[in-house]
Amino acid sequence: MEYGYARVSTKEQNEQRQIIALEEFGLNLRQIFIDKQSGKNFERANYQRLTRRLKEGDTLVVKSIDRLGRNYNEILEQWRIITKEKGAAIVVLDMPLLDTRKNRDLTGTLIADIVLQLLSYVAQTEREFIRQRQAEGIAVAKAQGVRFGRPPLVQPKEFPTVHQAWLKKEISAREAARRLSVTHKTFLRWAHEL
């Protein structure tokens, strides 16, 4: 059996380019597993489902090695588990040298191992560069006064009256929050800011 795996890092990203490549390989959507999650590790629901399904003689197809993951050691470990323990093959469409269906002799295995290690290293390095660029961008934006996250809620005009009733123990914090249409936590934060 042949399976495809596609991954993008966020829900906003589009995996269609990978799907098209996998379909051109000959897979249909029922054979393709998709995750919308970071490649920092392999704790991804659909990837786990896929690897549980893989058995000896099956083939796993990915568009590129970084779609499998971006952690050097874990990519190498997953590669070993799939090809050695499970006895399945892996095909990386963007890198024909990483097709374990062929060249299973010693030289072919050596070349595939070297290429795999190099590409895994590049994938992890790129992930680290992405994180560094994000941190730098966030630092610059904060220095320029950009605020991140949701804007703080404005206290309703009824807050002082409700707050006084709560201070006098006439109502509970939960009741105060309900009257102000905010969460219990928000009410308590406002109450303790005074």
TrEMBL record:
Keywords, ordered alphabetically: DNA integration, DNA recombination, DNA-binding
Active site: S9
Molecular function (Gene Ontology), one example: DNA binding
GO terms of biological process kind: DNA integration
InterPro entries, sorted: Recombinase_CS, Resolv_N, Resolvase-like_N_sf, SSR_resolvase
Domain Resolvase/invertase-type recombinase catalytic: 1-145
UniProt protein name: Recombinase family protein
Organism of this sequence: Dysosmobacter segnis
